[in-house]
Amino acid sequence: MSRRLRDQKEWEVRASTLARNTHNLIRGIVENLQVEPNPNKQLIALSVGDPTTFGNLNPPEQVLDSIRESVQWHTSRGYAPVVGHYEARKAVAEYTAHQGNVSPDDVILCSGCSHAIELAITVLADSGQNVLVPSPAFMIYQTVAEGLGIKMKFYKLLPERQWEADLDDLESQIDDDTAALVVINPSNPCGSVYTKEHLNNILDIAARYHVPIIADEIYEHFVFSGSEFTAMSALSQDVPVLTCGGLTKRFLVPGWRMGWLIIHDRHNILGKEIRKGLNNVASKILGPCTLVQRALPSILKNTPQSFFDEVVLFIENQAKLAYSELRKAPGLKPVMPQGAMYMMIEIKMSMFPRFKNELQFVEQLVAEQSVFCLPGQCFCYPNFMRIVLTVPEDIMREACHRIIVFCQENVIVAPRERLVDYNSSDIPLSIDKEVICDNTIPRVLAQTEKL
Question: What's the pLDDT at 450?
Answer without folding.
Answer: 47
